Amino acid sequence: MLLRSEYKVKGGKLIKVALEVEGDVIKSAKIYGDFFLYPEDAIENIEQALKGVRLTSDFEPIIAEAVKISGAELLGFSVEDLAAAVRLASHSSFG
Amino acid sequence: MTWRFLDTGDGDAYWNMALDEAILALRIEDKVPATLRVYTWKPSAVSIGYFQSLEEEVNLEACKALGVDVVRRITGGGAVYHEWGGELTYSLVASEEELKAKRFFADIQGSYRVICEALVEGLRKLGINAEFKPINDIVVNGKKISGNAQTRRRGVILQHGTILLKTDIPTMFKVLKVSKEKVSDKAIKAVEDRVTTIYREVSCNITLDDIKEALRKGFAEFFNVEIRPSTVTQSEIDLASEYRKRFSSWDWIARR
């Protein structure tokens, strides 16, 4: 099943999330948007970190850890925003 | 140290993005000086941000029908419709260190501010009362006239941005995927209320050369450095020719 969300960040940027799920586990995650992230390829580490994670998990520490390991800097959005966007997608299965 | 000014004129989307990256790569190796480049897109093209979904942002069929190219940037940010004759793009490649020595900034947002303020200085020379609006916009009376995006590699910054000369919002709405209600006359009016252009702010009689020269002078004065007109080097052409293959490949364009 594919779960999607669009999350408008305060300040104007848009985060789009697509989660491929099996049962309540994320099989793959894609994060799109018009934000800035340095270095850019850190996005793949964040997406990778969400793989195998349960939909009921607290995504924020998982994302925070991936950002930290990648030495990434975010501009136009925060780890909290990203977690909120993933949470929104995870909830779309119950709607 | 003198900086370099390159006016590379019209180029296709793949070449334009390839040359920006080639200048960045060669600046990292110290083979070229800090460079301000100006260029235009022929044919007109859509560029999407590094993190954007091609499928969700671009109407490929409309692009094909209208002869509009599509390229993915190495920088983040949003989708831009680069209309030939309707906008001018600039890029600045410089090391963080050499920029900071001229105009200090503490973080990434600060570096956007400093480079955008140089652009603002250039626009002021044209009589446009522009200002930087975080995160990455330049506005005139609250209306957007320029959007900017930056990447950084090994201490070197590439920031490029588009400066609107005029708008073709109906075409923009065709090539970019916007929701149905956004294509209404009301929505077109709404965009017209939110953006402005050089032609609207100054006059349609202003030439592209006037604008380019204003930018060169604005950057030179803001960073207190000489920016001398120059030409692209052979190594830049060679490297850009390599990079161009990637930018024009479907793998890259559709990678997200």
Distance between the termini of chain A: 14 Å
Q: Which chains have the largest interface?
A: A-B, 19 and 24 residues
Low-confidence parts of chain A: none
Structural class of chain A: alpha+beta
Strand content of chain B: 25-35%
Main sheet: strand order of chain A: 1-2-3
**Anisotropy-based shape of chain A:** globular
What is the N-to-C order of secondary-structure elements of chain B (H for helix, E for strand)? EHEEHHEEEHHEEEEHHHHEHH
Please give the largest β-sheet of chain B.
8 strands, mixed
Radius of gyration of chain B: 17 Å
Total number of beta strands of chain A? 5
User: What is the tally of helical segments of chain A?
Assistant: 3
Q: Which radius of gyration of chain A do the C-alpha atoms yield?
A: 12 Å
The proportion of residues forming helix of chain B, as a percent range, comes to: 40-55%
Helix residue percentage of chain A: 25-40%
Major beta sheet, strand line-up of chain B: 7-8-9-10-6-2-1-11
The DSSP helix count of chain B reads 11
The poorly predicted ranges of chain B are none
Tag the structure with descriptive keywords.
heterodimer, A: 95 residues, alpha+beta, two-stranded antiparallel sheet, 3 helices, 5 strands, globular, B: 256 residues, alpha/beta, eight-stranded mixed sheet, three-stranded mixed sheet, 11 helices, 11 strands, 42% helix, 27% strand
Please tell me about this protein's structure.
The complex is a heterodimer of chains A (95) and B (256). With 95 residues, chain A is an alpha+beta fold. Chain A is built from 3 helices and 5 strands. Chain A has helices spanning 42-49, 59-70, 79-91, and strands spanning 2-8, 14-22, 25-33, 36-38, 73-75. Chain A has a 3-stranded antiparallel beta sheet. A two-stranded antiparallel ribbon of chain A has the order 4-5. In chain A, a hairpin with a 2-residue loop joins strand 2 and strand 3 (25-33). The mean pLDDT of chain A is 95. Chain B is 42% helix and 27% strand. Chain B has 11 helices and 11 strands. Chain B has an 8-stranded mixed beta sheet with strand order 7-8-9-10-6-2-1-11, sandwiched between helices. Chain B has a 3-stranded mixed beta sheet with strand order 4-3-5, with helices on both faces. Chains A and B meet through strand 3 and strand 4 of A and helix 5 and strand 9 of B.
